[in-house]
Known about the structure:
Elements lengths: L1 H5 L2 H50 L6 H16 L4 E7 L2 E5 L11 E7 L2 E9 L9 E7 L1 H36 L1 H12 L16 H50 L5 H32 L8 E4 H11 L1 H6 L3 E5 L3 E4 L1 H17 L6 E8 L3 E9 L33 H11 L3 E7 L2 E9 L1
Parallel strand pairs: 7-9
Antiparallel strand pairs: 1-2, 1-5, 3-4, 4-5, 6-8, 9-10, 10-12, 11-12
Helix pairs in contact: 2-4, 6-7, 7-11, 8-10, 10-11
Amino acid sequence: MQLIKRLSLASRLALLFAACTAVVSLLAGVLFNQASEAHFIELDQQQLDNKLITLRSTLQGVDSAKSFAQREAQLRAELNRQPDLALRITAAGQRWFDTAPSVSLPAAPGLHSLQNAGTDYRVYNAPLMAGLPDSPQLSLMLDITHHQHFLQRMQRLIWLTVGLSALATALLGAWAARSGLRPLRRMGEVAAGVSAHSLTQRLPQQHMPVELAELAQAFNAMLGRLDDAFQRLSAFSADIAHELRTPLSNLLTQTQVILTQPRPLEDYREALHSNLEELQWMAQLVNDMLYLAKADHGLLMPKREPLVLTDEVEALLEFYALLAEDARVSLIREGSAQTSGDRCMLRRALSNLLDNALRFTPAGGEVRVRLAQGARGVTLTVENTGDGIPAELLPRLFDRFYRADPARHEGSSEHAGLGLAITQSIVRAHGGRIYCESAAGWTRFVIELPS
């Protein structure tokens, strides 16, 4: 059993083909052998029936041993015409005639098969005069040894055919299996060569069998996802280093400058306040990264409580009212809706969207929050006027540390490019989705939450 488990797939297929061929050949041979034997029995029956008619004609009217003696010469002449036929005539327990005295015959009427001294016989027992209970009994013995030899040769041929067919099928099956499994070996080679520096390899799908084309497509898709994830991870690592480099450099430089010579107490206090701001921003960045790490591992477990989204939006708009007034931006709410979810998490998500909208809305523009309650759930839209976002950048807006503006804000202690990524994680934790649209001077972030 252990050996079978360790066989290759090609070997298993070859053995399966061989076993199937052997079984089919054996069944066909057995059926053919039985059909041949039945055919020979039918031919022997016909021959014995014809000979019985001839013998009855020759012995017509014979009802005693004396009358039989008068016909014996004629009977022997008839039997001499067919050397493979023997005859026994019995009446009242006595043998009148017997050309095979050493053969023990069955007493039952009808057709029988027996073997005696290496010779095979077909025996046919029948009365000389049909319908008379005390009629002499005829036992015709037809030598069928040549028939049996033919059947034996055919049986040996069947076994030989089964063996050769199984062997040929095994060899051809192994070759066909190896040829058919070549794409799988190619997949193994590609998989073995996959590394962080070779994620661009792909399997050719044009010449693959239909059964393997889907597997190759799924394998290529997996490689594409791995490549994309690795690229994102590399970019994520570079962005983390970029974001932390500036505040760390500021801390080191300012501390070194302060320590170069004795200074008044006020200078030390001012330096410590400046360092505190940088450290707070770094702490917030680390907390945001930990928050996203929890989201990636499915550890964000929002509480479910009834929420009146209208009240939550009004509270946030009131919070941002002074900032909007300074930027000369109008804040507008439309519609109403209710849902269930985590109040703090949803407030954080909406706050990120409002802060993002205010930063990119020009003076005199509008930020509008629209709520809609539908049969499938709640739709919350945060939209603002201003310059649109190119369509090719929309899918990347929710990437970590991504900014639509390619210019880096060195030393920025406010926006590290994690707000939208956190918002997306919160929405997904609630079973919803978020996407962005930008057209006709409006940029919209749409959140869809289930009922």
